[in-house]
Design a protein that fits this description.
Blueprint lengths: L15 H5 L3 H4 L4 H17 L5 H22 L16 E13 L2 E12 L4 E3 L1 H6 L7 H13 L2 H12 L5 H21 L8 E9 L2 E3 L2 H4 L13 E3 L1 E11 L5 E3 L5 E5 L3 H14 L5 E8 L3 H10 L4 E4 L1 H16 L4 H15 L3 H15 L6 H12 L5 H6 L7 H15 L8 H15 L3 H9 L11
Parallel strand pairs: 4-10, 10-11
Antiparallel strand pairs: 1-2, 2-3, 4-7, 5-6, 7-8, 7-9
Helix pairs in contact: 3-4, 6-7, 6-8, 6-18, 7-8, 8-18, 8-19, 10-11, 12-13, 12-15, 14-15, 17-18
Length: 468
């Protein structure tokens, strides 16, 4: 469900229930620790004058945190709290006043709540825990903060930064557990998010790639790879980028719309990933797009994904991958690093960019015939690559239409979404652990972080509106 409209905390007439939930110790709560610290600051100012502010800032934060912990404990120990499903179900036995230590943004607090236990199934529940949205013994805001830190850097570094920046004490293993617990809910919000556009879109672009993520040995058992012995060191993660284009620059080159790129990432099979990518494109306004451009390299799974999920798209083979293949072909036909190969590559590159891919193919076949019988089919496969993808290599046409024909956006996404967090030196992942972090990275780099977390916990329903 979407968050309810923001409520103001401006003074209003309390309902009878609200009156019950405001005993004197809450309504008239004093910030004892804060006031005590401020008195110390006043004394220091009187004795020594003004000094550096940092000591005051850090001390005031600690005092405020102590008072905040006391206030939270008081708020949630009131006897008349209205809780959903706060009664024994058939077969359950109620155990009132059970203590629970909860870690919050301000540090640990102790709750007292009723715990219902079902002996026959050996299960229990605490309605207060569920109503507060706790993850185990951790508050939603603390989980959100720690997950964001872990989305950007390793767990040990995240622990250090949380302590330095927010005064939060969580070790790396605790943060890792919280990330794995929270990520599925974030993934669900990413999939079910609101439509991002209802306006006409001149061009929607979809780009796909498959970078490798280093995995622990157990994840790679039986997988073929590119190492010398044929084994795998990494596992492919499928990454898709969706963005819009509404203009070109003064030279007619396409310009990506500002902050328009969102991502989809998964270790799932290509068919499953294709469904997720199409769903994201539809959320972004696929139905309102006058043109849809799909870019990728030569991987067969990418083009099958495009055929099934984006049948009306303009399919474009990334120019830079085509030029890499052209370099290999010229080297094979005329000898690596030879002047003839270099000259031919220059000529064929110009032809390729001028929609003359068929002429390039014909010239390559004539040269292959001149070379006579080959010991292997390497050159044949290189030429066949261009024959197979020639309808996706009309680069002059794409240029004239102001369309993207290079996959720089997804290449950048492979670095920023995947590489910067999942491919750091010495890292080896399980599929489950990498999926959790990838989910958080996608939410962060798609600028959907706050949307996901706010919706999960209705975070704005008590937001204070500041005076203009």
């Amino acid at each position: 469900m979407s968050p309810s409209p923001t409520n103001s905390l401006a003074p209003r007439t309390p309902t009878p229930t609200q009156k019950k939930l405001q005993p004197p110790e809450v309504a008239n709560a004093q910030f004892r620790e804060t006031n005590a610290f401020l008195n110390l600051v006043r004394q220091a100012l009187a004795r020594q004058g003004v000094g550096p502010l940092e000591a005051v800032e850090l001390g005031l934060r600690e005092a405020l945190f102590k008072d905040a912990r006391a206030l939270l404990q008081t708020l949630y120990r009131q006897p008349d709290l209205a809780l959903p499903d706060h009664a024994s179900r058939p077969g359950e036995q109620a155990h009132p006043d059970r203590p629970k230590t909860v870690q919050t943004l301000f540090g640990p607090i102790e709750l007292r709540r009723t715990y219902f236990y079902h002996a026959a199934t050996h299960t229990g529940r605490a309605p207060l825990d569920q109503a507060l949205g706790l993850t185990g013994s951790f508050s939603p805001a603390l989980v959100r903060l720690s997950a964001r830190a872990a989305a950007q850097e390793g767990y040990a570094s995240a622990s250090e930064d949380l302590l330095a920046q927010a005064g939060v004490v969580l070790d790396g293993r605790q943060i890792q557990r919280l990330v794995n617990l929270a990520a599925p809910a974030v993934a669900a919000q990413l999939a079910a998010g609101p439509s991002a556009s209802t306006q006409p879109i001149p061009v929607m672009c979809v780009e796909v790639d498959g970078p490798g993520v280093p995995m622990v040995a157990e994840e790679l058992a039986g997988r073929a790879g590119k190492q010398a012995d044929g084994s795998a060191r990494t596992r492919e993660v499928k990454l898709g980028a969706v963005f819009t284009q509404t203009q070109t620059d003064a030279e007619g080159m396409p310009v990506r719309d500002h902050a328009a790129t969102t991502y989809v990432g998964s270790f799932a099979s290509a068919p499953d990933f294709g469904l997720r990518l199409r769903a994201e494109a539809r959320r972004r306004g696929l139905g309102q797009a006058a043109k849809v451009v799909f870019l990728g390299d030569g991987a067969a799974w990418i083009w099958e994904l495009a055929r099934v999920n984006f049948p009306l798209a303009i399919l474009i083979l990334d120019l830079y991958h085509a030029l890499e293949r052209l370099h290999e072909l010229c080297a094979g036909l005329y000898g690596a690093d030879s002047p003839a190969a270099a000259q031919l590559q220059t000529t064929w590159t110009a032809m390729l960019k001028a929609d003359q891919v068929r002429e390039v193919i014909a010239a390559a076949r004539r040269r292959l015939a001149q070379l006579g019988p080959q010991t292997d089919d390497t050159l044949e496969k290189q030429i066949a690559y261009f024959e197979h993808h020639q309808d996706k290599m009309r680069y002059q046409t794409y240029r004239a239409q102001g369309l993207f024909y290079g996959s720089g956006v997804i290449e950048g996404g492979c670095r920023s979404v995947v590489g910067q967090r999942l491919k750091e030196s010495g890292m080896f992942w399980t599929a489950a652990g990498a999926t959790s972090v990838l989910t958080l990275r996608v939410a962060l780099k798609s600028r959907r972080w706050d949307e996901c977390w706010d919706t999960l916990h209705d975070s704005h329903h008590l937001q204070i509106r500041l005076a203009a």
